[in-house]
Write a structure and sequence with these properties.
Number of strands: 10
Number of domains: 2
Largest sheet: 6 strands, antiparallel
Shape: globular
Distance between the termini: 59 Å
Order of helices and strands: HHHHEHEEEEEHEEHEE
């Protein structure tokens, strides 16, 4: 009888082990649907279009279609990614297509705007510096869902407030981590790396703003934003 019980227990352990392996295999396969290269590519693109709320109102505004995105944000994204600061109208439009894809139909204002001024004598547009505060607008990738022609990405938005460090020569100071309501959610040391900040955000994720970003891919693998909505 004891031998029978031992055999049953052994078989049960083997069965549990096989089940656990199967579940782990399924989870691994699900996670491997999106590669590290894809994640890096998505993050790199989002960094290109993620702005400064003191200039554009929101670091990443909401819109149902890229052509409905706020003008200031749209052209500030273009300006942020320019390698030159003296450009023709055609160069600006070309950069906009590069960032937003062929579906982007907005026309850059011929008269320029506050941060990209037109000079009638040279016929060129000149990028004008913008006044930034000491709060760094940052996002954290939370979830990525792969679709047939792109991705749906959930991000968490937060602020790293460097005001105290800006006013001191001491390299060891405290950095408040805030949500978009300027509420301090936690603090880290200036000597901490970014993973410490990200963990703080993850541990308090319900206190931060979350957005869903829809991205489209073309035949060459380029990524373009199509819409952004609050969650």
């Amino acid at each position: 009888m004891k031998k029978l019980i031992v055999i049953i227990l052994i078989l049960l352990i083997i069965f549990i082990g096989m089940y656990a392996y199967r579940e782990n295999k399924i989870n691994t396969n699900r996670n491997s649907e999106i590669t590290i290269d894809e994640i890096n590519k998505i993050e790199t693109y989002l960094q290109k279009i993620y702005m400064w709320r003191e200039i554009t109102g929101e670091a990443l505004p909401t819109f149902d279609n890229i052509n409905d995105a706020p003008d200031v944000w749209t052209w500030e994204v273009v300006k942020k990614n320019l390698e030159e600061y003296e450009l023709s109208y055609e160069q600006i439009q070309e950069k906009a297509k590069e960032l937003f894809g062929e579906d982007f139909k907005k026309e850059f204002p011929k008269e320029g705007y506050a941060y990209m001024e037109y000079n009638e004598q040279t016929g060129k547009y000149y990028a004008v510096g913008s006044g930034l505060d000491n709060q760094e607008d940052v996002f954290l990738l939370d979830k990525i869902e792969k679709q047939e022609n792109g991705y749906v990405v959930q991000i968490v938005e937060y602020l790293e407030n460097y005001s105290e460090g800006y006013e001191t020569t001491n390299s060891d100071y405290t950095i408040p981590i805030e949500n978009l309501k300027d509420e301090i959610i936690g603090e880290v040391k200036s000597t901490d790396d970014e993973t410490v900040i990200q963990q703080l955000v993850k541990d308090n994720i319900d206190k931060f703003t979350k957005k869903e970003v829809s991205l489209k891919t073309d035949a060459d693998g380029n990524i373009y934003v199509t819409s952004v909505k609050n969650m």
